[in-house]
């Protein structure tokens, strides 16, 4: 489904990714693991078109993503949960969830909201609240809901549990676990180097912007 082949990228002429390889198959949950600053967020942002591909290739269902504008990811069925949540503070919970749906020409708001609220019914109670009125953990739930609203084929979840209270972290884990059980394709990043590999179909470890083996060989 998602194929990352020898991908490199740079920020202000500084290389932040070097020949990274990663694959997410249909119905798989793949872990992207690395310490803070290892390049996890840069890789997800590159997939989403926020950073340019300076080498290698990213394909999604045989489509070269570098040929598509970044707003086209939603139309392709890719949902992105940013580490910093990326919500619009003045918009309501429901408006934030619907933002990427409005970009898509194929998705209808009501069915996508019904799906999201089915997974996270607690959001119906706060649907009319502005994002700035929510706690950090509640904002993470909304960010996951927004990704799910358009992620009909693939979800990219960047550090979903970072900075979240234990109760809300467990709630996020429950939702992600249900998605995995239903064979949703997911790429999920985290910085816990002592992760349980049994949670994933595959795990890619990244160090200094490269796959761990390549990084070890280069340093």
UniProtKB/TrEMBL annotation:
<dbReference type="Pfam" id="PF00005">
    <property type="entry name" value="ABC_tran"/>
</dbReference>
<keyword id="KW-0029">Amino-acid transport</keyword>
<dbReference type="InterPro" id="IPR003439">
    <property type="entry name" value="ABC_transporter-like_ATP-bd"/>
</dbReference>
<feature type="domain" description="ABC transporter">
    <location>
        <begin position="2"/>
        <end position="219"/>
    </location>
</feature>
<dbReference type="InterPro" id="IPR003593">
    <property type="entry name" value="AAA+_ATPase"/>
</dbReference>
<keyword id="KW-0547">Nucleotide-binding</keyword>
<dbReference type="InterPro" id="IPR052156">
    <property type="entry name" value="BCAA_Transport_ATP-bd_LivF"/>
</dbReference>
<keyword id="KW-0067">ATP-binding</keyword>
<protein>
    <submittedName>
        <fullName>ABC transporter related protein</fullName>
    </submittedName>
</protein>
<dbReference type="GO" id="GO:0005524">
    <property type="term" value="F:ATP binding"/>
</dbReference>
<comment type="similarity">
    <text>Belongs to the ABC transporter superfamily.</text>
</comment>
<keyword id="KW-0813">Transport</keyword>
<dbReference type="InterPro" id="IPR027417">
    <property type="entry name" value="P-loop_NTPase"/>
</dbReference>
<dbReference type="GO" id="GO:0016887">
    <property type="term" value="F:ATP hydrolysis activity"/>
</dbReference>
<dbReference type="GO" id="GO:0015807">
    <property type="term" value="P:L-amino acid transport"/>
</dbReference>
<dbReference type="InterPro" id="IPR017871">
    <property type="entry name" value="ABC_transporter-like_CS"/>
</dbReference>
<dbReference type="GO" id="GO:0015658">
    <property type="term" value="F:branched-chain amino acid transmembrane transporter activity"/>
</dbReference>
């Amino acid at each position: 489904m998602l194929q990352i082949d020898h991908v490199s990228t740079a920020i202000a002429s500084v290389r932040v990714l070097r020949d990274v390889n990663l694959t997410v198959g249909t119905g798989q949950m793949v872990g992207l693991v690395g310490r803070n600053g290892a390049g996890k967020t840069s890789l997800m942002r590159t997939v989403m078109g926020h950073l340019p591909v300076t080498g290698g290739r990213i394909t999604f269902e045989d489509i070269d993503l570098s040929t598509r504008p970044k707003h086209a990811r939603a139309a392709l069925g890719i949902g992105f949960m940013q580490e910093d949540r990326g919500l619009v503070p003045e918009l309501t919970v429901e408006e934030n969830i619907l933002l990427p749906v409005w970009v898509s020409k194929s998705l209808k708001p009501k069915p996508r909201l019904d799906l999201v609220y089915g997974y996270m019914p607690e959001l119906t109670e706060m649907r009319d609240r502005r994002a700035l009125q929510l706690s950090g953990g509640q904002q993470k739930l909304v960010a996951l809901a927004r990704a799910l609203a358009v992620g009909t084929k693939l979800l990219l979840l960047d550090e979903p549990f970072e900075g979240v209270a234990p109760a809300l972290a467990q709630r996020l884990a429950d939702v992600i676990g249900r998605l995995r059980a239903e064979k949703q394709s997911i790429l999920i990043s985290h910085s816990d180097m002592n992760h349980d590999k049994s949670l994933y179909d595959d795990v890619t470890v990244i160090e200094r912007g490269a796959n761990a083996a390549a990084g070890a060989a280069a340093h």
